[in-house]
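User: quick one, fold this
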Amino acid sequence: MDLLSAFIWFSGVAFVYFGLNCFYSEFIKTEFDRYNLPGFRKLTGFLQLCGAFGLLLGLYYNTIILFLASIGLFLLMLGGFIVRLKIKDSFIQSFPSFGFAVLNLFIAIKTFSTYF
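Assistant:
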């Protein structure tokens, strides 16, 4: 397994976990209340699950899906990072969204440069 595939699997599995938690976790419910965005919790979970499955399906079947899923997750996590900055969370609290944004941007750039 090459490094790109490992990153795709890591991100994909992580977003399956995060996406499901948006529907069931009380902690995530309280976090979205804290962000003052409770109406976006289920949409965020749905988009995370779509992105996760797009990464994993795209890795093996269609690089366009892989590219689009990684761009989508990058934008979603960039938005999450901006929300964290807006509510004045610390760097430690904001880092996961920033880290996943960078990871998915890397996946998108590497996919584009390798396959297109």
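User: anything notable?
Assistant: Residues 91-115 form the longest helix (25 residues).
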